[in-house]
Amino acid sequence: MSRLFFITGTDTEIGKTTCTAALTHAAAQRGWRAAGLKPVAAGQELRAGRWINEDVAVLHAAQTVGLTEQEVGPIQLRTPCAPHLAARLEGRPIRRAEVMAALRAPLPRLDVALVEGVGGFRVPLDEEAGWDSADWARDLAAPVILVVGLRLGCINHALLTAEAVLGRGLKLAGWIANTVDGQMLQHSENVATLRALLPAPCLGAVPRLDAPTPEAVAVHLDAAALDCLLLKKDLA
């Protein structure tokens, strides 16, 4: 059975995909069959005659277990906006059962599955069922990894998201500090405050990188914390 994690963020465009790809790489380096999955993705670009979602492409490239792009990102919407709005525009409703079935299909081939959500923790998905990404995480009953985009306001966003995760009865398994604003004032002090206030271990602090490849980002993950997470142990 796969070790399953749900990756969420304090907002959109704060590095969830970058960190998910790095976690995939780090797990694979430890001998695990690992992959990042993004069952719902909105926003595609036409490249060499193919419509590509950049996040799905990054996660597909990071895995080495032979999954197809369709298995990594089964529901890809073309319009770059909130997924329920993109689905409405394109006449392709997002259905809870479809998302869950598509997600479960590759799990027998994985030891570690890192399921990346969309945007922040509470993003509408299935309008008919009133089902959002927080409900999705609860349906999976998966420990949550929070990517905190380090910029002004991140402490408030991180604490509110952690509160929402715990309020759904989910475990906050860890968090990653990812530098979005390279000029952020009091950078280390913000990270220290997050370490003190978030009720979960920090899995890494990632600086602003010119080339945030999975390998480059994985260097900044906390090896001991990651080992404990994957082995289901408590961090001393």
UniProtKB/TrEMBL annotation:
Transmembrane segments: none
GO biological process, one term: biotin biosynthetic process
Record carries keyword Metal-binding: yes
Record-level Gene Ontology MF annotations: ATP binding; dethiobiotin synthase activity; magnesium ion binding; protein homodimerization activity
Keywords: ATP-binding, Biotin biosynthesis, Cytoplasm, Ligase, Magnesium, Metal-binding, Nucleotide-binding
Intracellular or extracellular location(s): Cytoplasm
EC number: 6.3.3.3
Record's function text: Catalyzes a mechanistically unusual reaction, the ATP-dependent insertion of CO2 between the N7 and N8 nitrogen atoms of 7,8-diaminopelargonic acid (DAPA, also called 7,8-diammoniononanoate) to form a ureido ring.
Complexes and interactors: Homodimer.
Protein family membership: Belongs to the dethiobiotin synthetase family.
This protein's name: ATP-dependent dethiobiotin synthetase BioD
Native organism: Inhella gelatinilytica
